[in-house]
């Protein structure tokens, strides 16, 4: 058998591998849609699903080509060169390993989507900055890993067995040609076909990049879930990695000193002659609006979203404590309010520093440990005469939170390592014991500012709810399906977190009646009882003020905000007139009407994404219709806030 005969046979085996792997991609995509079909929009039709499968087939041509290229190089070429069939085993080994990877990713993707509503996000690559041990314990406890491993092994074994049999099927012989001209034409055509096939595969069913399908243009469906299904797991991972690299490049933004001065003048409202970034962020307080509290408690509830507070979810009865606080005359809620981002660490970074999220993770940046940022909430509260304290229900080593908060103006750090608790998990103490311990910290009668970060409303959901008094029937009237025990358990943990938060506030208010309580959430995009929530239901967190001097009418009707508006709002509430403070965001007391984070913006009428035309009206403000606002001016201000913050974190205060 000639080398050409061998080569012709081998590329047929490669083609069989290609077809089989492509079929596996399609099988997993269809399974993903079927298993999570409840995430489909109500208006989605069969035609939409078929279109998604078709576009997914195109994009998976590229993903299938990865393993086939390796098979071609290390299987077909080596068999042809050395005329040794032993190298054929490489093809099966490569195919089997690739299928194992796809099987693992498929099993991971389903729970990942249920939590994050995306098929792998760029924050996946920041995992090792988190508490890896606690994450592993959470995954093991929450996702039935032994069963998952068994399922992965069985799927992989079956698919690999079928692949082996498929690769053993017969091939056709190379045409027997006698003339040199015919042989040359056939061989040349064969090589050209291989080259064209590679291009066709590389561009996902096209011969040019302009007409190709890739992760950046694959979202062709009106259904967000189908857009995620179009991407196979390899492409979804590649998208996450590409986006993560874009975030990393934020550390090398090409911002020069002239731009910094222009940004500063825009934020300050006038030209300032200075070489310090923070001079542009200087403000003077208008004068205290409420009696100065003896103690301030800023509570950041783990995954405390705003949607359970909405009237349409009242029958769940999982947020009754906080709703009871909101109903009081000396309490106010700002409904159009966004977290700094999609993670707890992002929220902590933004609230502590007063700077917007830029995916820079200032808790790992050297500049954050040279001294406090002038915008830091701990530093400024200390200047107002408060002893500052950061309390976390977890461990101080998580995300360097102890080092970071102490470096940013907090006098003390308090964690679960500082007290005994009867129940908890790998993330730390249950909220009940954590909040009870905090009640003992203010007994020296020194005015204090306390940031409190809870943890129980977070996987693994290990609280003994029955012991804590949770009755599953209380949420039943708000659910269509009461057989989903896992969902009820998650709702129960929100109920538990809300209950403990309410108990803590009642206890501290009894001991210190003139205290001010501030309630917000770190993020919201993790859990919802409906598969396709509105953007507001999915992303908004509450901002609540409760205490002496607070009233329902203290803010104008058009206010909206985000985590960077917390510090200036608190300062304007209690600081004497002309007190100098520093802020990137604007105080809600001054009518701030625009909240934002790295992805979304919000006003009293609308919520939307910066990088898309998607906008939704807010039903919570009772708007019947509201046109999308012209964001040109707001975007300029956001760019200025982010630009100055980037320079301060990356290059310091000097311009």
What tags apply to this protein structure?
single chain; Alkaline Phosphatase, subunit A; 2 domains; 7-stranded mixed sheet; 4-stranded antiparallel sheet; elongated
List the helices and strands and how they pair.
Blueprint: H1 3-35, H2 46-82, H3 88-116, H4 132-142, H5 145-167, H6 180-202, H7 224-230, H8 233-249, H9 257-268, E1 282-284, E2 295-301, H10 320-326, E3 331-334, E4 337-338, H11 344-353, H12 377-383, E5 387-392, H13 401-407, E6 412-415, E7 424-425, E8 428-429, H14 431-438, E9 448-453, H15 473-476, H16 485-511, E10 516-521, H17 535-539, E11 543-546, E12 561-562, H18 566-574, E13 580-582, E14 595-596, E15 600-602, E16 606-609, E17 615-617, H19 632-651
Parallel strand pairs: 2-9, 2-10, 4-12, 5-6, 5-9
Antiparallel strand pairs: 1-13, 3-11, 7-8, 10-11, 14-15, 15-16, 16-17
Helix pairs in contact: 1-2, 1-3, 1-5, 1-7, 2-3, 2-6, 2-7, 3-5, 9-19, 10-16, 14-16
Q: Could you give a quick summary of the protein structure above?
A:
With 655 residues, this protein is α/β, with parallel strands linked by helices.
